[in-house]
Amino acid sequence: MTAPGTIDYTPPGPVLGAFLRSDRFVRFVCGPFGSGKTVACCIEIFRRACEQRPGPDGVRRTRWMVVRSTYPQLRRTTIPTWQSWFDDRFGSFTWGPPPAHRLVLPLDDGTVVDADVQFVALDGADAEADLRGFEGTGIFFNEVKEIPKGIIDFALGRVGRFPAAKDGGPTWYGIIGDTNPPDSESWYYRLAEEEKPEGWAFFRQPGGVLDVDGRWAANPKAENLANLPSDYYLNQLAGQSTDWIKVYLAGQYGFSLDGRPVYPEWRDSVHVARDPLAPIVELPLLLGLDFGLTPAAVLGQRTASGQWRIIDELVTDDMGVVRFSELLAARLAQKYPRMIVEAWGDPAGNARAQTDERTCLQLVRQHAGIRAVAAPTNDFTARREAVASALNRLVDGEPGLLLSPRCAMLRKGFAGGYHYRRIQVAGDDRVHDRPEKNAYSHPHDALQYLLSGGGEARAILGRRERRDRVRPERSEHSYNVHAW
After folding, report:
1. Is 450 exposed, middle or buried (0-12, 13-18, 19+ CB in 10 A)?
2. 192/104 Cα distance (integer angstroms)
3. % of the chain surpassing 90 pLDDT
4. Local structure of 13: helix, strand or coil
5. HSE-CB of 419 using CA atoms within 13 angstroms
6. Would you say the C-alpha torsion 285, 290, 295, 296 has a positive or negative sign?
7. Do residues 373 and 335 make contact, with C-beta atoms less than 8 angstroms apart?
8. Bridge-partner residues for 352, per DSSP?
9. How confident is the model at residue 269 (pLDDT cuts 50, 70, 90)?
10. Is a pLDDT exceeding 50 seen at residue 426?
11. Is 338 left (phi over 0), alpha (psi -120 to 50) or beta?
């Protein structure tokens, strides 16, 4: 701050800069602890208040609501952050109820800013009633992931109502918010990563730490580092669980689960493509298939350099193989016409059912019209290793496995939906040795068959064979090393 009523602020990173430059009706920014996102939202309120068109009397009037889920959170975090930038020199602050700050200050052009900022907790049955009486310019939701989606929906109709049209109307109005990464089952994740509503914008900051060869290291691309103590992120690692570190320090989406993710190698910010992946027409389309009453297909390609590009998924529920094969044929004809297709399925799909002499793989070949064979192995450890080795690999500076954002079930499974269930043992943290069967396990089984059939299993099984050859097992017979 250089003088009373003057703010000296520079966005401490490109993501926050893009957030502040945007004019979208709804804007949210997601990032780790200490990334400067709450300050950016406070600055945005002040900037928009100063840019509001003056009324006939030369006054730039705006009205804002700053929301947190509880009043203790407002008092402990949100209001102190606001007051660290806007003290009494900008106008009088009152503790209400509700707490409010009336900013009144003259500008160099002779106009006057008059901004009414109210701090409100929307945490109970009266939340909608509290909103119903608000007619304002904009609303700032601090830690928006803690706010129910119904309140966000109701808030959409409470902004843009001040100043009145006779006073010039609002120059800009809308909703802004900040949050630490939510879990992948939240409404925020669904809108930000899957539905992406028109007129809404979601900004995601880089994490404060990175996984480097299995160890957490400071991320030099993190935002707001100049305003943090040295080793701010590294000092928070001690004693914290991996899941906590991923969300609050690495800035990755979490997952609500009782167990351990199958793929700790997964990094959402690294392995998910920014935009949906399109097929490379010069390459064959490779499929992985899982059967049962919840059949699934995963579609991908492997480039000449060895990168796996997972471009699509087909996940069904309570469906037979024939109907699934027909849906798969329709998907291929509509989105991937005239492409060479190869497929690998669950080796158990080669077994004949008691009521039908045809196998699942035969039914797929017949009704989907594709060449489908059994994957080279059904050993879970080998299948998991096939995917994990691709996740751990770098190909020309890019991840060895790149997932299209349209693959929602695979992505949520990677984030933790595909997991080992915890065993209830007092005083011990143990999990089952096989993943839990759920909605995410079927597409991930299909992914494992795809990578195993596409070449990853060959290298893994080859390493096992070489290891077995040089490490013979002792039998009940006498062992002669020279004879061996």
Report:
1. buried
2. 36
3. 74
4. coil
5. 20
6. negative
7. no
8. 359
9. confident
10. no
11. left
Q: Which two tokens stand for residue 433?
A: 């040795």
Region of 34 (left: φ > 0; alpha: ψ -120 to 50; beta: rest) is: left
Taking the C-alpha atoms of residue 369 and residue 333, their distance in angstroms, rounded to an integer, is 11
**Structural domains in the chain, sorted by start:** 14-204 (3.40.50.300), 285-468 (3.30.420.280)
C-alpha torsion sign, points 167, 171, 177, 178: negative
Distance between CA atoms of residues 126 and 111, nearest Å: 38
Residue whose pair of structure tokens reads 């991840």 in the numeric block:
399
| 458 residue type, one letter | R
Residues 31-80: pLDDT tens digits? 999 999 999 999 999 999 999 999 999 999 999 999 999 889 999 999 99
Angle separating helix axes 380-391 and 457-470, nearest 10 degrees: 120
Distances from the Cα of 444 to the Cα of 56, 259, 288, angstroms: 63, 17, 9
Find all residues with CB under 8 Å of 202, minimum gap 6, and list them. 27, 28, 29, 30, 191, 192, 196
Q: C-alpha 282: how far from its chain's center? A: 31
By CB atoms closer than 10 A (0-12, 13-18, 19+), residue 76 is: exposed
8 A C-beta contact, residue 371 and residue 365:
yes
Q: Which residues contact 120 (CB under 8 A, 6 or more apart)?
A: 65, 66, 67, 74, 98, 130, 134
| Chain center to CA of 470 | 44
One-character DSSP codes across 199-266: TEEEEEPPPSEEEETTEEEE-TT-TTGGGS-TTTTGGG-TT--HHHHHHHTS---B---SEEES-TT-
Query: pLDDT over 70 for what percent of the chain?
Result: 89
CA angle 96, 99, 100 (to 5 degrees): 105
pLDDT exceeds 70 at position 470: no
Give the DSSP letter string of 398-419: EESEEE-TT-HHHHHIIIIISE
Helical (H) or strand (E) element with 188: helix 187-189
Compute how many other C-beta atoms are within 10 angstroms of the C-beta atom of residue 18: 14
Residues in a beta bridge with 139: 65, 175
Question: Could you give the CA distance from residue 67 to residue 397 in angstroms, rounded to a whole number?
Answer: 42
Q: How far is 115 from 104, CA to CA, in rounded Å?
A: 7
Q: How many helices (H) and strands (E) does the chain have?
A: 15, 23
* Residues β-bridged to residue 302: 308
396 Rama sector, left if φ>0, alpha if ψ -120 to 50, beta otherwise: left
Contact 120, 130 (CB under 8 A): yes
Residues 6+ apart with CB under 8 A from 150: 128
